[in-house]
Specification:
Blueprint (H helix, E strand, L loop, with lengths): L6 E12 L2 E13 L4 E5 L6 H8 L7 E6 L2 E2 L5 H11 E4 L11 H11 L4 H14 L15 H13 L5 E5 L7 H18 L2 E5 L3 H5 L3 E6 L2 E2 L2
Parallel strand pairs: 3-8, 3-9, 6-7, 7-8
Antiparallel strand pairs: 1-2, 1-4, 4-5, 9-10
Bound molecules: adenosine-5'-triphosphate and magnesium ion (MG).
Length: 226
Amino acid sequence: MKHPPLLQAKNLKYSFNETGTSTHVLNDVSIELFPGEITSIVGPSGCGKSTLLYLLGLLDRPDSGEISLNEKDVLKCDDKKRTILRNHKLGFVFQFHFLIKELSVLDNVALPMRKAGKSKTASYEKARDVLGKLGLLDKSNRFPHKLSGGEQQRVAIARAIINSPSLILADEPTGNLDTENSKKVHSVLSKLAIEENISVLIVTHNLELAQSCDRVIKMRDGRIIE
Ligand SMILES: Nc1ncnc2c1ncn2[C@@H]1O[C@H](COP(=O)(O)OP(=O)(O)OP(=O)(O)O)[C@@H](O)[C@H]1O
Ligand SMILES: [Mg+2]
């Protein structure tokens, strides 16, 4: 039997308002994400993929609809509670890694755990542990610009998982990588889904990678079409 969904979104609507006109970007989008599953979202540029990830990542609120995480209604939570949920339950990986260039790989990865108030010893121990999982332990003391694009993106994944999230939201994490590095990053995400029972949602333009996921969601004009 399938587990209950980790995240459930129902009938999400979202529009941007600019100079008096409102543009509908998401129309009745419903989605369920399960632990241990990697799901991809594909669709033309501008169809609303990133907007959907923002809403599911509790970075913005829909105009209407429902979002629950572990069967808890997260839209009822105030901003403070949402920030706590985001820091503890969610990990984000973007197209450009957004690593801090003045910090070593190890410091970058430990940072979210330090920010969550954990001790230096515990944070650095866990940072080494997740870097090891991603095959990057030998790069711990390097600075990000001394790594390949694929390695930088794997450091970004290490940073996203240090607080043991239940869900990873990845917005075109392989968008600026070559084929080989894209495959590596993708296989790291698939492995994390299976081994750590994390739910992974990945936006990608790479159909081959999308199709290797457990599920593919196709979007067009703010709707899920398949
Ligand atoms: N801040 C904003 N103000 C107004 N419209 C916006 C804003 N951000 C995005 N949009 C519009 O919302 C729609 C969806 O944008 P979104 O970024 O979600 O698309 P996407 O599917 O992620 O595209 P891409 O594949 O190019 O990243 C687009 O038509 C875009 O122009
Ligand atoms: Mg986008």
